Every structure is written in C-alpha cells, then in structure tokens.
TrEMBL record:
It holds the Pfam family DUF881. InterPro entries: DUF881. This is UPF0749 protein YlxX. Belongs to the UPF0749 family. It comes from Halolactibacillus alkaliphilus.
Length: 238
C-alpha cells in the first residue's frame, strides 16, 4: 500500500511537471515571436535610415560634381577671355591707360640756320626714336592719334611723314609712351642717340613723366597673311 502511494505521488508529480512545462511553453512562444518581429522591424527601419543617409550623401556628391564641372567650364571661359583681352592689348586694339612719359618734338629755331628753312621731322628720325624707346622699356606707344603696333608703317610721302597710312601733323609732334618705369626710361632717353640725331636736325626733344596717359586704340584692320586655321579633334591632334 505504501509503495502504491509513493508511485502515485511520483506519477502525479511527473504529470504536474509536464503540465507546468506545457503551459510555460505556450506562454513563452507568443512573447518570443513578438520580440523577434519587433527586432526585424527595428532592423528594417535602421536599414532604411542608412539607405536614406547614403542616398542623401550620394546626391550631395553629385551636386558637388555638377558645381565643379560648371565652375571648371566657367574658369576655362574666363581664362580664354583673359587671353583674348591680353592679345588685344598687345596688338594695340584696345584703349590703354597707365603711367608713362610724354615726348614733345618741337622746332628749335635758335639752332636753325636761316638757309635750312623750317625743321622737318622725317620718317627715318621717327623710326630711330621709336626703336630706341622700345629698347629702353616702352610697352605701348602712340604718335599723335596714331597707335604704334607691330606692323605699323612709317614712311615719307611727298615730304610728309605718314604713320599707319595717314599723315601726321608738322612740328610740334607728341609721342605718348606707357612703361613700367617712366623715370628710368626718361633717364635713358636723355643720354640716348635719338636726342643727338634730333638736335642735328634742329628738333628739340622734351620729356615729361605722367601718372596717367591714355593711348587710343589701333583702328585699322589687321591683315594676317600666310595663316590658316587647322582643325583639331578632341584629343588635340591635327
């Protein structure tokens, strides 16, 4: 009898434990499933936020690239315009203002012989003077209202000096020069050969340093001979 009681108690205990485990499993299963679903949702939200952040960063980089390309093209255009402007200045096609010196050629009647007549400026004297000015640092010149450029022709035509195919006035004649160092140019010219050459022809040379001198642009058409435009492909090969 005692043995049966013990067996019955053990069986009851075992059944109780099994029932307890069964209820515990049924109660834990929904909680575990709910937690896993929440974790998945959280992970999805985090992934979406990360992708959104990456997309925003990609858009920002694309915007920077577009700005860079736009600025690069703008810089190229700006550089090209600067180069064109510099070439126009060098060719004498633009009006220029800067410091320089102003030369005035006048007739020196005190040294002139009555038999020699009125002192005359010749194309040879003017060419020598301009060449010497260029050697001593002149950057841009104008004789009266005629801008001196690389292909300017200075000639004597029927006893009168022509510059750029137009006659210049008789003495006095004004020559305007732009230079980086007006005082140095003036000092060089005061002891230069041109002063003595002009004196031999009874022409006096006066020089004045100016803070601001304006040169008129060259107005004639520039004719370029023996030049042609070559076609280039994208790699720059002709």
């Amino acid at each position: 009898m005692k043995r049966q009681t013990v067996l019955f108690a053990l069986a009851s205990l075992l059944i109780g434990v099994m029932i307890s485990l069964h209820f515990s499993i049924e109660q834990d299963t929904p909680e575990r499933d709910t937690r896993d679903l929440w974790e998945i949702r959280t992970a999805l939200l985090e992934e979406q936020e990360r992708q959104q952040t990456l997309q925003e960063e990609l858009n920002r980089l694309k915007s920077i690239e577009a700005d860079y390309q736009g600025n690069h093209i703008f810089n190229q255009i700006h550089t090209l315009r600067d180069q064109i402007s510099q070439l126009q200045d060098q060719a004498g096609l633009t009006e220029l203002s800067d410091e320089g010196i102003e030369l005035t050629l006048t007739a020196n009647f005190t040294e002139a012989d009555q038999d020699e007549g009125f002192p005359q400026l010749t194309a040879e004297l003017l060419n020598r003077l301009i060449n010497e000015l260029n050697v001593y640092g002149a950057k841009h010149l104008a004789v009266g209202n005629e801008r001196i450029v690389q292909h300017t022709a200075i000639r004597d035509v029927t006893g009168q000096v022509y510059v750029n195919r137009r006659p210049i006035s008789d003495l006095p004649v004004t020559i305007s020069i732009l230079t980086d160092n007006p005082d140095r140019l003036k000092n060089y010219m005061e002891v230069g050969q041109s002063v003595r050459d002009l004196q031999l022809h009874n022409i006096k040379l006066e020089m004045d340093v100016r803070d601001n001198i304006t040169l008129v642009p060259y107005t004639d058409n520039i004719v370029v001979d023996y030049a042609k435009i070559s076609d280039y492909n994208e790699e720059g090969e002709s």
